[in-house]
Amino acid sequence: MPIQLLPISLANQIAAGEVIERPSSVVKELIENSLDSGADQLFIDIEKGGRRRIRIRDNGSGIDKDELALALARHATSKITSLADLEAIQSLGFRGEALASISSVSRLTLTSKPAQQTQAWQAWVEGRDMQAQLTPASHPDGTTVDVEDLFFNTPARRKFLRTDKTEFSHIDEMLKRIALSRFDVKMVIQHNQKVVRQYPAVAQERALERIAKVVGSSFSDTAEMVDNEHFGLRLWGWVAPPEACRHQGDVQFLYVNGRMMRDRLLNHAIRQAYGDTLGDDRSPTYVLYLELPPAEVDVNVHPAKHEVRFHHARQVHDFVLQSLRGVARGATSNVAPHQYQ
Ligand code: ADP
Ligand code: MG
What we know:
Belongs to the DNA mismatch repair MutL/HexB family. The protein is of the alpha+beta class.
């Protein structure tokens, strides 16, 4: 075959393969966009585990009519303009890929109204050239992205989808992670037209109320608070003392500069902080937030941004270990000090 450029829609579908694994990945990408737009209210409608519909409405800044088509194009982003921006990234997104990818494997409509615009507009793409069509619409300030029939045109992907129930449980899990990343954001979640979860916004001081709602009060009732700062690194959050740790590692939420992570280095540090108090059958149980200067961490390691790379990995590891050691070994106020003498 001669060398030829891929049609845009095919290039987008290939890119979608990296980030959009299943409905929950769509939910993640769309909500990250909503949060980046300053929204503090999210209405999430899921139908049939997300395969029929994923619709997210936010009250964020909205997208100008003139930029709607561009928002759907690949490598189009309002979040960075240079490599320097990427090194000091504050937003969750920056790749300019999500909407292009999702719209190439679904029927996507984007409806938006910035506060300064009197009329809302709607865009969708059709056909191989990914040219967006625009029509006037009715919508409050903010944005709705409606994703229908995910993977309708990529049967190989569709085949890997599980039952509606399983797909919804992945979405639910993703929404929990998001709910614990921003206490100040209200979330209302519907599945098949029924409200299945509601997370009202809470002030920072009342974060434990949301944690109780998301992961259950057996964690929030026993968890110890941690807040430690050292040389520009801060670790805060809650960890369960060893005796309250779970048998299954289902409460392990770790955020780095507001992004949920699975990080081997940090997992290792947390595990080590517990020492041998857990035995074989219990897992570290925590909701933790690590904050460090954006230039200290590279977020552009993985397309779905599940991983980061720390510039001073050893230092971060030791800081996490030191911050948690006391609490994680149970040497806290609820244990009489003489037991350790
Ligand atoms: P990225 O988030 O990496 O910039 P996306 O494809 O996810 O790329 O989104 C493209 C652009 O569309 C964003 O940079 C943003 O300007 C705009 N956008 C997407 N979703 C929203 C939203 N919910 N509210 C406001 N703007 C949005
Ligand atoms: Mg995005």
